[in-house]
Amino acid sequence: MNSYTDPNRDHLWQQLCDLPYFRALLRAIEARFYRDLPIAAPVLDLGSGDGLFAKQTFTRPIDVGIDPFYSPTFGKIYHEGYLALSTAEGAHMPFANASFQTIISNSVLEHIPNIEPVIAECYRVLKPGGTMLFCSPSDHFTDWFVGAKFLGDAYRNWFNKIARHHHCDSPEAWAARLAKHGLSVERAWYYFSPRALRILEIGHFLGVPNLLSKIAFGKWVLWPSANNPMLKLLHTWLTPVYNEALPPTGACVFIVARKLS
Is residue 11 within 8 Å of residue 34, measured between CB atoms? Predict the structure, then answer.
């Protein structure tokens, strides 16, 4: 455990109050991993998005969040999750060499077509011995899709397209890519089981009411309350999946890498 996380926090419930259930499940599982990871200040969140993940996951603000897109939630959420913010590309970070002890990048790198310059920048801004923690879809991301049983690769390719995935790679592929830039993988594991992946897949279709709520009211979940019977039902249904042991292979991969020098 580290000073940035709370081992007693119910990440699943917290995520369900803010996100469609299929995204909530994925983010909750990822949030739980950070409890046992080496997070030391100063910390950079690469691809901070709307700031919600940092606010929900960590008990203290991250030093800096960086994202190329200005989010409408810059303001309260961001100020709760970060000490400072930067709107910039990951391939051109406005930070001095060796500025950070830890880089976090949660489900971001898969969306960047030209990833090599971003990894090079991560090496540059990390202190010697610093840690990079990130996750992304794995080489098994489309293996267990229900739709692929009927539509094959056309469905898999379509799903990756709407998800804006440019990299769905194995731990070995990530290790080779990182090694070229002086980063060594210390730990890597698969997560998100076939059952979890199918929940995510089907949720993309069943989540239309959440999408309409977001468009009309700016919120994925209109009634984020402990008295909401639908949220309680979803929490009960998803808790066994949230608590699953790590699978031997999974739809996603988590990487812990270190700057060698």
Answer: no
- Confirm whether 53 is domain-assigned: yes
Helix (H) or strand (E) holding 177: helix 171-179
Q: How far apart are CA 232 and CA 218, in angstroms?
A: 22
Is 3 among the domain residues? Answer: no
Domain that includes residue 161, residue range: 11-259
Q: Name the phi and psi angles at 119, rounded to 5.
A: -65, -40
Non-local CB neighbours of 246 within 8 Å, separated by 6+ positions: 189, 190, 191
**Structural domain total, the chain:** 1
Write out pLDDT tens, residues 74-101.
556 677 889 999 999 999 999 999 999 9
Contact between residue 99 and residue 66 where contact means Cβ atoms under 8 Å apart? no
Q: Domain of 176: which CATH number?
A: 3.40.50.150
Whether 5 is covered by a domain: the verdict is no
- Domain membership flag for residue 63: yes
Contact by Cβ (8 Å): 107, 52 = no
pTM passes above 0.85: yes
| Cis peptide preceding 248, ω within 30 of 0 | no
